[in-house]
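Q: What would this complex look like in 3D?
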Amino acid sequence: MKKTEVDKLQEIIRLGSELVDIQDLDILLERILRESRMVVNADAGSIYVRDGDELIFSQVQNDTLQAQLPPGQKIIFSTFRVKISPKSISGYVASTGEILNIPDVYAIPADAPYHFDSKYDTLAKYKTTSMLTVPLKTNTNDVVGVLQVINARDDFGNVVSFDWNDEPFVLHFAGMASMILQRAQMTRALLLRMISMAELRDPKETGAHVNRVASYAVELYESWAQRRGTSQTEIEKNRDVLRMAAMLHDVGKVAISDLILKKPARFTDDEYEIMKSHTFLGARLFTDKQSVFDEVASTVALTHHENWDGTG
Amino acid sequence: MKKTEVDKLQEIIRLGSELVDIQDLDILLERILRESRMVVNADAGSIYVRDGDELIFSQVQNDTLQAQLPPGQKIIFSTFRVKISPKSISGYVASTGEILNIPDVYAIPADAPYHFDSKYDTLAKYKTTSMLTVPLKTNTNDVVGVLQVINARDDFGNVVSFDWNDEPFVLHFAGMASMILQRAQMTRALLLRMISMAELRDPKETGAHVNRVASYAVELYESWAQRRGTSQTEIEKNRDVLRMAAMLHDVGKVAISDLILKKPARFTDDEYEIMKSHTFLGARLFTDKQSVFDEVASTVALTHHENWDGTG
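A: Here is my prediction, written as structure tokens for the whole assembly.
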């Protein structure tokens, strides 16, 4: 059934206020894609996220294929990666920042810069026809991904073209998705900058040590969590946060003089006290908490020299 | 005139796609407040932004007062600051995170925790009656500000209460405003963290030196820009970016050993070469550009030892 304007309005309004309640990036993108498809009556759709010069499938939804699966089962899609080049449809949109509204992907003129790769249709046993693809652009005009809706349907369920009226709606959702992706990127960037600065401080040792400690921390966490019966999704999320936080456990060492930090002999008592200050000096850097990463990183920096019983 | 549902939908859709095109925080908040007021037919409204334990007026709009001014002139409001406490309406919303939909601010029950401060009405010669106030919450559940719409009007221009139907609309716009404020905060946080780390490295000198250089840079820029006839708004924006960037001009010094950095005597040739590397090592920290701050900071870090003619 085609949505009325009032239905659309209600959906859009509801999503707007939900976006601040949901923390999880994947759940947010899943919701945005679902709402975009609902509003323009699309059978299927995807969100791709940019990773360097590639696009990665982040969300894939397809009502027709989903209906063929047992209840509760999700569509399985390998994490396809597409090189960003104007030759593919999503790559064209990502590299030019333009919108593509294609009535029939099997009837793209031969002289178009992009063409449709029918490999995915063959693999999925699906027939893609109409396709509306828009870039996910940030306010600094960077493309962070692509949102694509596939096979618009009329009131009788027949596949039709996407209307030019549909474009502003999809662009609205693309705007939401871009903001959310940008926020996630900045959250990571904040810690990555700090890691880079800490590495500059001590390039020979820090890099290797930091990665070693992060790997140990993640290993320890994983076997502890598995024994406690934590779900795999939960484990994966925490693992990511913990890895970043653990990489910053020694960040407070920027405050310690080389004379102490690199002293080949034993510390004097005074030097030892100064050395120990790297824990709370490090933790203090995260006072202005921007995300859950900062919470965890602060705790790790403060307590990474403690014993299990709180002494140390 | 009361908006139809279709009008509202079009406004909301348009705003969603505009949000990624506009870079400027004030312009964005101005647009969001205007759209919120239009959709719920409010005569006036404000956006407050949180600064520590205070709220600062960021946007003030009032159609009645505006109509009394000569064309082109804006409402002048001193930058009021309100302590965040449950005693004021905006403070209550900011501290509890609750919505307040008040039919008549002059009829708030005496036992309510909050009360209306009629001082602003007296100052502005305005009569506030109905008021809908919602928090601007981030996905980490922090309140970063408050959005308030004032004096809903019916089709005949009479002041009426805000309907419960209006709340989701205002919350939708509040969601947009929160995301935008959070993005702006993270942009600043990214640089402030780096400044804090650089200060840890050399707490005695860095803090004072950094502020001195930033002030010189801003002074120089201002008189240069004024002579060129740059607008005051433009100058103020650039000044803010330049100040942050200038504070990071020496950030690459985290890479330089204390043995060189704090050497009381003259550098050897080798030491001097190492010392000079703080320019490009610093600039490299901003490679993964997150905002215009990073562009400027990278340039400042790289070129701050150059002469005007490019030598140095």
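A: To summarize the key features: Chain B has two domains: 5-183, 202-303. Residues 5-183 of chain B form a domain with the Beta-Lactamase fold (CATH 3.30.450.40).
Q: Very helpful, thank you.
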